C-alpha cells in the first residue's frame, strides 16, 4: 500500500465547472444539474499556443491550473516550473484524430503541422510544459477504460519513489461521429490532483492506494443516477467516487475499476495540522 497526500484538486464536467462547485454537489449539499459547458480558455498559455490548443488540452490545463491555484490559496508553496506531471487520457485529442482520418480518407496527405503536433498523445503535457516553461519529467498514460486509475497508480508510485509534489491530470472528451459509434463517450471531463509525500496545507488529506483483489470488492458507484451514468461512460469520470469521498472529508474506501480487479483507495479524514512548506 502506498500513501500520499492530496494537496489540491481541479474538476471540470457537465454541471461541475470547478472543484468548489463540484465539491458541494458531490458531497450532496447542492443538487446536480448536468449543464454542458464549453472547455474554458487555456489561460496558462501564451496567445499563440492558446489559439492552437484543442478542447481536450483546454480541459486538461483548466483542471491543472485549478489544482495549483487551490493549493496556493491554501498556503502551499510550490514551484510549478519544477513540478513533475502524469497526464492520463483514454481519448487524447479525438477531434484531431477525426480530422486526420477524414483528410486521409479523402486522399489529402498534406497534413497541417498544427494538427499533427496536436495529434500526439502527450500534446496536453507538452502545452503544460510550454505554459510553465517547465523541463520537469512528464508521463502520459492511456489504458482504455481504466486510464484514470492507471494514472493515479503511476502518480502515487512516482511520489513514493522520488518524493515531493507531483500533479496528476486526467481528461477525456467524446469522439466525433463516426468514431463515436466505435468508442462512445459522454461529455468532456477533467480532474487533477496535486499529490505529494507530505501535507502542504491545513486541508491536505491522506490517501492510501493499492491494487485490490477482484474477488474482494466491486467498483464504487454513485447514488445520483446522472452522476453514475457519467461515471460509467467516461474514463476520467470514473474518478468521481474518489472525488466524492474527498468532498465529504470523512474516512472512506473507494474502488476504482482497474485491469481485472479494482484500485482500492482509502481516504484518511484526518487533515494535516502541520503543513510542510516547500
Provide the β-strand percentage band.
15-25%
**Structural class, judged by helices and strands?**
alpha+beta
Q: In this structure, how is the largest beta sheet organized?
A: 8 strands, mixed
Query: If strands are numbered along the chain, what order do they take across the biggest sheet?
Result: 3-2-4-5-1-6-8-7
What's this entry about, in short?
The two termini are 25 Å apart. The protein has ten helices and eight strands.
Topology:
Elements: E1 2-12, H1 19-26, H2 47-52, H3 55-73, E2 85-88, H4 94-105, H5 113-119, H6 123-132, E3 138-141, H7 147-162, E4 166-172, H8 179-182, E5 189-196, E6 205-212, H9 225-232, H10 240-248, E7 252-258, E8 261-268
Parallel strand pairs: 2-3, 2-4
Antiparallel strand pairs: 1-5, 1-6, 4-5, 6-8, 7-8
Polypeptide structure, described:
- The chain is of the alpha+beta class and 278 residues long.
- The chain is built from 10 helices and 8 strands.
- It has helices at 19-26, 47-52, 55-73, 94-105, 113-119, 123-132, 147-162, 179-182, 225-232, 240-248; strands at residues 2-12, 85-88, 138-141, 166-172, 189-196, 205-212, 252-258, 261-268.
- Helix 1 packs across helix 10, helix 3 packs across helix 6 (123-132) and helix 4 crosses helix 5.
- The model has no long low-confidence stretch (mean pLDDT 91).
